[in-house]
Write the structure tokens for this entry.
Amino acid sequence: MNVSTNVTNIGCTSRAAALAKPGSQHMMHRFTIRAIAALSALLLTAGARVDAQPPAAARVFSGAPAASWIAPPGVPPDSFTVFHARREFEMSERPSRFVVHVSADNRYRLYVNGELVSSGPQRSDVDHWRYETVDLAPRLRVGRNVIAALVWNWGAASRPVAQHAWRTGFLLQGDGAAEAALVNSGEGWRLRIDSAYAPLRPVPGQISGYYASPPGDAIDAARMPWGWEALDYRDDDWFIVPAGASPAVVGRLRLRALAGSAGTGVVSGWQLQPRDLPPMEETVQRIARVRRATGIAASDGFLRGNADLVVPARTKATLLLDQGHTTNAYLVLETSGGAGSTVAITHAEALVDARGQKGHRDSVEGRTLRGARDLIRPAGERRRFQTLYWRPYRYVQLDVETGDEPLRIHDLHGIFTGYPFQQRGSFASDQKWIDTVWAMNWNGARIGAFETYMDTPYYEQLQYVGDTRIQALISLYVGGDDRLVRQAITHFDDSRIPEGITASRYPSALVQLIAPFSLIHVAMVHDFHMHRDDPAYVRRMLPGARTILDWYGRHVDSTGMLGPMPYWNYLDWARGWRLGVAPGADDGHSAAISLLYAYALQRAAALEADVGAPGMGDAYRARADSIVRTTRARAWDATRGLFRDRAASDVAAATFSQQTNVLAILTDAVPAAERKAVMTRVVTDTTLTQATYYFGWYVLEALRQSGLAEQYLDHLAPWRKMVALGLTSTPENPEPTRSDSHAWSAHPNYGLLATVLGVRPGTRGFRTVVVAPALGSLQRAQGRVPHPRGDVDVALERVGSRGVRARITLPAGVTGTFEWNGRRVPLRAGMQEITQ
């Protein structure tokens, strides 16, 4: 048995290199070696040619001896595989520091002496593969120690669409010579395939709509090497990685050298970068209650972990459990007995009636649960099962079938996981209904964020540009944490194809191109520029923004508007628009898409003026003005006092939409004197194509830009209806909706702070603050907005019919302006009271 099929050496690079590699007809991955580490040797398939000689004495991480990527022998590169890796070692004294770097493909969980210390890697693509850096010293002891890893590859047939992959493997690299000598993955590590696991795709008909999330787990307790992570586990029969397996040519398999060592510029395989996000939160979360039971009488004791649920022999039982709110959690089941039994665990956001309708989310009567599932086969002894990956759910259904032995369920709970946002931002007022809307929105934003933002944690777990712009603003205003925002912007920049535009979503192993989302990416860079003072980072994004705008510029035809546009021209899931495409977007002269192009040009002009090339900014501004003038000339309907959806000369029967007219307002295609009248028609004329919750963010921004921000709260009626339907996170669309968890609909938490409380950047980088409240029907409101230098605190109380008393605190070093009823008052750092 030859381990050479599964061991690859890792080395470092001394310089950056890039290689364009063709993918699909619409996609080319850009391969880049970044600082810190990169592969210096890559395992190829059997019989591959040698393109360069392996490097001599490759080193990584502070000059330590190189580690190897390892996997059990005989593992195919891209099939479903779960394996364990162990390394025992002795220590004569407990170290004060013992730092290692760890990664895997697809994912891993790392234990030291039985305790979990790391989980990852942070999701990215192969060209920017991530590793975690962990100090193991707090978990080490004098004498014998063990590092153990659970590693899995979902495989090409089952892998979630957001998951990139190269081949199955695990890497652990000591940061220095002392650590490397003891624990570097390679020689002496013990490996074992875990045949207890199999992927479990959803049963046909159980999932409504597109499903791109991970499979469930089928787990056979009789096959699992229980206790594999513990120090006292005996691994004598595990495969041992032999000496001399790398870094040279071994057998018929050859290792190709990479740039930086051999200097040939060949780039392939994992290009390693350090993790730049904090570890994800993992917190025990108890399921609230049993809502229904058949085949057995059930109490809630096992959900609290303090009483057993006993399912008698030869029994079929079903229990419906209710978390009480949507969540993301690893499911944990602890059982004993029950040899020959099966436990199916199905999870879903809501129940459905006979017609497949959800109705009130609290209702269970006459409703069933359909969804993805896990399947566990207990084997008699007391065991604790945990899903490989987390599950999104509100409801969980247990279907238990026992054999000749009763099954005891000691415990069932979740371990909540998500990006570790803290709720720094806050909003309170004299209208309490806002509190429930805020809580629903924040829960939706939280469960829509993991190692990337996600459109929906249940169905797709994909980071889309359109969704992410809104999620990023919520993160900045409520969480005050910009790390996930930065990563998302960088991901989209990494996704650009040679033509210049971004992918619609990234990371994604399946390339999808929604061209208008590239324009929103430009706006997202501008959002970041206004809220964070980091010109160097923004400057890095400008080349990508330029390629996007140039791509669109090439599609402006002789009319001065955008002509026929390729790819998917999704703008909003508006009823009557096929696949969410605005009229004219595909075949030419769409007012909405032309104006969205101008919207991106205007923001790019500001970016260039601030941190790029001012001359280019002038050119973008002129181009935007031309698009706006032409669109007004060709699409403005004086009779309706609205913009048509496409140029008047193109169709006999005009159509009108909120989307087109909102973009006209946001790009100043509507003169200032006309905005209130136009916006009033936009929100009152029900014959217009209506915006959905997602595009509602743009509607509410246009409301503010039109001088009608006082109406903001009146437009939150749909969110009050969500609460009335029992929703605990914001849905994708109005009823009937596929997804109950789409954070693009959670934007009122941004609007309450940025429009109602009125806190926005006054200048780039949030260097100054504008506080321009729009209280509407509120008598009192107060809140907090996180700022890079501290917090902005605002407390407001109406005085009479038009006055206000304001108490405002700005962070040290920050100044600003308070605006009320057309008057402006300067603000200084610290607390101040103003009465107008």
User: Anything to note?
Assistant: The chain is about 20% helix and 30% strand. The longest strand covers residues 316-337. The longest helix spans residues 614-635.
